[in-house]
Design a protein that fits this description.
The complex is a heterotrimer of chains A (299), B (321) and C (242). Chain A is an all-alpha fold. Chain A has helices at residues 2-32, 39-57, 65-84, 93-119, 144-166, 168-178, 180-185, 190-215, 223-237, 245-263, 268-282, and strands at residues 134-137, 140-143. Chain A has one domain (2-282): ABC transporter involved in vitamin B12 uptake, BtuC (Orthogonal Bundle). The radius of gyration of chain A is 19 Å and the shape is globular. Chain C has 242 residues and is an alpha/beta fold. Chain C has 2 domains: 1-77 and 154-235, P-loop containing nucleotide triphosphate hydrolases (Rossmann fold); 84-153, no CATH class. Classes of the chains: A mainly alpha (299), B mainly alpha (321), C alpha/beta (242). Chains in contact: A-B, A-C. The A-B interface holds A 35, 37, 83, 86, 94, 97-99, 101-103, 105-111, 113-114, 116-117, 224-225, 227-228, 231-232, 235, 265-270, 272-273, 276-277, 280-281, 284, 296-299 and B 56, 58, 60, 100-101, 104-105, 107-112, 114-116, 118-120, 122-123, 126-127, 130-131, 184-186, 233, 237, 240-241, 244, 274-275, 277-278, 280-282, 284-285, 288-289.
């Protein structure tokens, strides 16, 4: 019994992080139909920013989150302006997705290797007084950093939800997502909407990066495994369903926790892959989409 | 028709030169290494091009098929299986793997294929890294008798097989269907093209070629400091980049791009070392954004201009090579 | 006043409008009628900025419209109700209307405008929470018009609003349009295939065919003209009107 609860606890903590890791990717995909393969790299970048802030100025990483978000937001604006804005001209969604994949794939190479050059391939992580410490609750071990990560994930996604549903900017984002031309006719500057959304998506990646550098570590090429998780969570949640990202992450986390218990940590990615394939075979629109929705058969 | 004969003649001459080269002159170790990597890149680029350039399906996990070919070939060959058979099996293993990932993903939008192949490559990379963490060496008996010549010819033969295969596919009904799918999937579907079947076929052929490339690499490499390296995304990125720069959807493009890549790597290795991948990345992004037809497109345009100059009458061109 | 001068509009390489000129005076109801594919929607899209003319110009109160991006055209007070309504299907009726008031100056008076829209289309007040994608055709049309009204427009462009609506609903909407034109001095430019409805509603009309303006004049006069009777109303010859 105790083991089961431990597994569940582990799964929830890891799953919440997966949700946080995926939310930036899902936002960009949902709003603009851009697939940002470099998302993992940006998560690493967020972790690095937090790491250097901690190393040079001794600022508590949790407190540095707003600064990290700001930096990542600005980088997001630049990336959009430089690289992604030209994709808007492409007529088909399929073309847009393809080209954004290619461009961001190239971006991985530029950024990962630049990071290696600048910061070496050393493994970095932020070690504080509470790293590795766990709270012992009725015999269940709950790592402090993990719980903080869980809290952050819930908070960030909740705030994003508020932004999208209650603010005018959020309405603009949703309107643009559902019908970009009609949004233009209502006076919405869709280019500005996309620009800011890109910044927000990267800021979200930054927050994930902070949690990662505290609970795990960052390396220049470490983004790829997080990208894998983010992609699978996004597919589980269903394209464009921001609200389903956290539940999807939790499901993935729980499945992983169970599988690690059974087969050990070496086959974690295989389990994730198998899950991905199964979802594609049986519920390709995502676990949370009703039959009538979803358009991923269009080109 | 004469144009075709001329092209065949040139190609034949090039092939003949390549085939006779090692017999006519002494090729140094360094150049041999370069040539073998060039061969592997050409094969991999053609493989990626088949799916990406002709069928319009972006494969972000080519490394998975390559790596499988390497692993299968290596273990079989070390176990005593003759190399050509081992390489063949490597190709087959890659094909089987392709089927596993292709069947669920190719029914859906292209994005899922990209994610699926990427997930496959990553899963293999990490898992193989966990299961085989230690370095792998060729048995000493193999090292003692190591000669580049058979490796050169194996590579050359596979390159020729690849080029012939891609040429035949591109000019077949399968190729026509693939290009229709690439240009407008919905339209293709509406005209009765079974897009799933053709996508799967294209993938199987593409994966087979990538597996063969892996086999060549397994024969070529003396040791692997970590087996998981053969699943590194660099084995997807460099062929992708070579194809993009050379020109997608053409036969000559991946060849041009691979040559460009190898030459540039050499130049950079002497001066900038690590930075060369950054430059490649920037180059790649520029190509995707601004030069969709790559080097082959530039060559084509030069040819067009020359024809116009020669005849002062523009000639209609349909596709390169 | 809106002045369209000698515009040529292309879709890529395909020319859709040839040398089109129109004027729309303040407070008028003007209609552009023509059959399917004649270029009516193209004209509206060009005014609203979704398309740009290759030659010619569009002026509104002295400002060049054809150089502006579409969302800036809305800021000038020109709002289009697009063909097919184009609501935001996963947003509620209220949210759709709120998005209509996106512009800063419209947002400030949102409450009042909303009340007015509810007066004009009372059924929307009942259905304010309902998801826009689940409404009937007529209700969607009302939301679409309401959304345009939320932006406090001075010129309203209506693209084939009668499509898919029952004759009773069409009459109702005509009444509403006439009403807001009078009470708010809102200039209306409507594009229609339903010739009878359009010419009954409008003060003046233009006829477009294959991308060229063929005729113009007083709406009642046009209604009685032979050309219109013949081509569009099916009277006078055995031809069926579209």
């Amino acid at each position: 019994m105790e083991t089961t609860i431990q597994i569940i606890a582990y799964g929830v903590i890891v799953g919440a992080l997966y949700g946080l890791v995926a939310i930036g990717l899902a936002l960009l995909m949902g709003v603009m139909k851009y697939l940002n393969i470099a998302h993992g790299t940006f998560i690493m970048l967020g972790g690095y920013v937090s790491f250097w802030i901690f190393t040079f100025w001794g600022i508590n990483p949790y407190l540095s989150i707003p600064l990290v978000m700001l930096v990542m937001f600005l980088i997001g604006l630049i990336i959009y302006k430089l690289l992604l804005s030209s994709l808007l001209k492409l007529p088909y969604i399929g073309l847009r997705i393809n080209n954004s994949m290619l461009i961001t794939f190239g971006l991985i190479w530029v950024l990962d290797n630049a990071a290696t050059l600048l910061w070496t391939g050393d493994v970095r992580s932020i070690v504080t007084s509470y790293t590795g410490e766990t709270l012992n609750l009725f015999g269940i071990r709950l790592p402090y950093t993990g719980m903080a990560g869980l809290g952050l994930a819930v908070l960030v996604i909740f705030l994003l939800n508020l932004l999208l549903s209650k603010t005018y900017f959020g309405k603009a984002v949703r309107a643009t997502t559902q019908d970009a031309e009609a949004a233009t006719l209502a006076g919405i500057n869709i280019h500005r909407t996309y620009l800011i959304s890109c910044g927000i998506a990267l800021a979200l990646a930054g927050v994930a990066g902070v949690v990662v550098v505290l609970s795990y570590s960052v390396t220049p090429s470490g983004g790829l495994s997080w990208l894998l998780m983010a992609l699978v969570v996004m597919v589980l949640a269903g394209e464009g369903k921001i609200n389903a990202v956290l539940p999807a992450g939790l499901i993935l986390g729980l499945v992983e926790a169970a599988s690690v218990f059974v087969t050990g940590a070496a086959y974690r990615e295989v389990v994730v892959l198998i899950m991905f394939i199964l979802v594609l075979m049986f519920r390709p629109r995502g676990l949370f989409t009703r039959r009538a929705e979803g358009t991923q058969y269009d080109s | 028709m004469t144009a075709n004969w001329k092209r065949f003649l040139i190609t034949g001459a090039v092939v003949a030169i390549c085939a006779l080269l090692p017999l006519l002159m002494e090729i140094g170790t360094h150049v041999m290494n370069l040539l073998l990597m060039l061969f592997i890149y050409i094969i991999l680029s053609q493989s990626w091009n088949l799916m990406g350039g002709y069928a319009g399906q972006i494969n972000l996990g080519l490394a998975a098929f390559f790596g499988c070919g390497v692993l299968a070939t290596h273990f079989l060959w070390v176990a005593g299986v003759p190399i050509y058979l081992a390489v063949l099996v490597g190709g087959v293993v890659a094909t089987v793997l392709a089927g596993i990932i292709g069947l669920p993903t190719l029914r859906l939008r292209g994005m899922y294929f990209a994610i699926g192949t990427f997930a496959l490559a990553e899963a293999l990379r990490v898992t193989v890294g966990n299961v085989f963490p230690r370095a792998v060496y060729m048995p000493s008996s193999y090292i003692v008798g190591y000669s580049y010549i058979p490796r050169y010819y194996l590579g050359l033969i596979i390159v020729i097989i690849t080029l012939v295969t891609v040429y035949l596919v591109a000019n077949s009904r399968l190729g026509l269907a693939m290009m229709a799918i690439r240009d407008d999937e919905q339209a293709a579907q509406v005209t009765g093209v079974n897009i799933f079947k053709y996508k799967v076929l294209a993938l199987l052929i593409s994966a087979f070629l990538a597996g063969l490339a892996g086999g060549v690499y397994a024969f070529f490499q003396l040791s692997f400091w970590q087996l998981s390296v053969v699943f590194s995304p660099i084995w997807t990125f460099e062929p992708l980049m070579a194809t993009a720069i050379g020109g997608t959807g053409t036969l000559i493009g991946p060849v041009l791009g691979s040559i460009f890549l190898v030459v540039l790597s050499e130049i950079f290795a002497l001066t900038l070392g690590e930075a060369h991948l950054i430059i490649f990345g920037v180059l790649f992004i520029l190509v995707v954004l601004y030069f969709p037809y790559g080097l082959a497109g530039a060559v084509d345009r030069v040819r067009q201009v020359m024809v116009r100059v020669r005849r002062s009458k523009p000639k209609a061109r349909g596709g390169v090579y | 006043m809106l002045e369209i001068s000698h515009i040529d509009v292309y879709y890529g390489d395909l020319q859709a409008l040839w040398d089109v000129s129109l004027t729309i005076g303040d407070g008028e109801i003007v209609t552009l009628i023509g059959s399917n594919g004649a270029g009516k929607s193209t004209t509206l899209k060009t005014i609203s900025g979704l398309l740009k003319p290759k030659t010619g110009s569009i002026n509104y109160d002295g400002i060049r419209l054809d150089k502006l991006p579409a969302h800036k055209v809305v800021e000038l007070g020109i709002c289009m109700v697009p063909e097919g309504r184009r609501l935001f299907p996963q947003m509620s009726v209220l949210e759709n209307l709120e998005v209509g008031a996106f512009l800063r100056q419209a947002r400030q008076v949102k409450g009042d405008t909303l009340n007015w829209v509810y007066e004009v289309f009372p059924v929307l007040r009942e259905r304010f929470k309902q998801s826009a994608g689940t409404l009937s055709g007529g209700e969607q049309q009302m939301v679409a018009i309401g959304r345009a009204l939320m932006s406090q427009p001075k010129l309203l462009l209506l693209d084939e609003i009668s499509v898919g609506l029952s004759p009773l609903l069409v009459q109702e909407i005509c009444r509403v349009i006439k009403d807001i034109n009078k009470s708010r001095k809102l200039t209306i430019f409507l594009v229609e295939q339903n010739v009878r409805m359009a010419l009954a509603l409008a003060d003046r009309g233009y006829i477009i065919e294959s991308g060229r303006i063929l005729d113009q004049g007083d709406a009642k006069a046009l209604l009685n003209s032979d050309r219109v009777k013949d081509a569009y109303l099916g009277i006078g010859s055995a031809k069926e009107s579209e």
